[in-house]
Amino acid sequence: MDTRPIGVFDSGFGGLTVLQELVNSLPKEDFIYFGDTLRVPYGNKTVEEIETYSSQISKWLVQHDVKSIVVACNTVSCMALPYLQRQFSIPFFGMVSAGIESVLSFSSAPKQSNKVGIIGTKNTIASRVHEKDLRMAGFEGVLVELACPLFVPIIEEGVTDDGVWRSIVEYHMHDMKKENIDAVLLACTHYPILSEYIQGYLGNQVQLLNPNHFISDALARYLKDYNLQNATGGSVSLNVTGSTLSFNAFCHRFFEFRNDTVSVINIDSLI
Amino acid sequence: MDTRPIGVFDSGFGGLTVLQELVNSLPKEDFIYFGDTLRVPYGNKTVEEIETYSSQISKWLVQHDVKSIVVACNTVSCMALPYLQRQFSIPFFGMVSAGIESVLSFSSAPKQSNKVGIIGTKNTIASRVHEKDLRMAGFEGVLVELACPLFVPIIEEGVTDDGVWRSIVEYHMHDMKKENIDAVLLACTHYPILSEYIQGYLGNQVQLLNPNHFISDALARYLKDYNLQNATGGSVSLNVTGSTLSFNAFCHRFFEFRNDTVSVINIDSLI
Lengths: 271, 271
What we know:
globular, 46% helix, homodimer
């Protein structure tokens, strides 16, 4: 039994899809979410900047006595996770290994997949970390990788217009559709919000692989194995570095946890 | 006669539409363009950050011996122009006064306009600087102001797909179309790239007001009045703080000046 909270962070809103999965799977845990909404997007930042920012956030979470940290952002997971794990003694859970697990779990299922698409931000796709890790794990199928840079800004603007989404999904995924993939990995924590449009465009024969489920499984296993579960929690604390207005609107639109107070953390207090 | 170059800067690519107009109108001048592509977008930055960044860039331009500076960005013009003008002794030309001039010039034309739309980034529209300055200048018509936050990221991604643009323009401008405006001010230097789609959506009875022409007129008048014209120049130097790849692609797609070398300026060298 360990009643300390679990830290979850992202550059902005996307990590809320992971938080939602964690809250559903581990309802007795306390969670502290940190969204660096002032410095979002991380997509155009250098590795050094992403290391600095994610290290500042991790320090802040450690100061708030978290027992582990979920890096709910594929870009940070690709670019800075080993760096963070070296700096801090508590365990980090990242999106990449969850993504690898979800691809392997699908491709070893009875209906074997030999062609898997991976979609993410430019930084995530350019890093080729998923490809490298999948090959190291023995995946022998065909990989089709594609950056979809418009998805994040349009989600963050809160666009829910069907016409806009259909045209943007077709614009980005047109070439991937022609590849006749069997499954596609959503390698960006924003993308589960678009599942309906992506599925609708690619067709029901393509399986959407959402790593959020696997990251929550990995965390649950760890808490159980090390006897660190909490039986008395259930709270969610939301913290952002930028304006709370759009964050609140986003929470209310897409998620079940609806805190009345989202705290604003001054970035000058992050060291 | 003054052979010193003219400085032009923006947070990223948008200012290139202004540079194009300046190069066409003042072909014998030398220009130094600075795009802060590493720290783009400025839209989610605080006033203090925008003052610091634009002051660093202005210092860099002054060190390169420019005779005047064109702030080719509406957001910076709205938020930091008086601050910059206090700091430096050379004259600054900003987008807001050019926008005001273009609205007044239209509304005093034989076919009077009483209803003018203003479109820009969230920061620009929230500042209400155009409205305040137009009222101070005696404009008595109706103003309809609207932020179009998706235009910049989609332009910067280099999207030229008709279907995407038609759906995004309709998404943002649907409410403005219903207002039956007579003219619309493009209060963001990116937007002239979209002129065709905006005109197509609003219809030919709505006049598009592009302030770029007015800023180049103001600069030309100043150079002539103070005898600071150059008769021997004609060069364009392009400088960015981020990757040159997307900048080059953007230049080649939309503009006539196609430098083979775009210089990368290390932001640590900006003080």
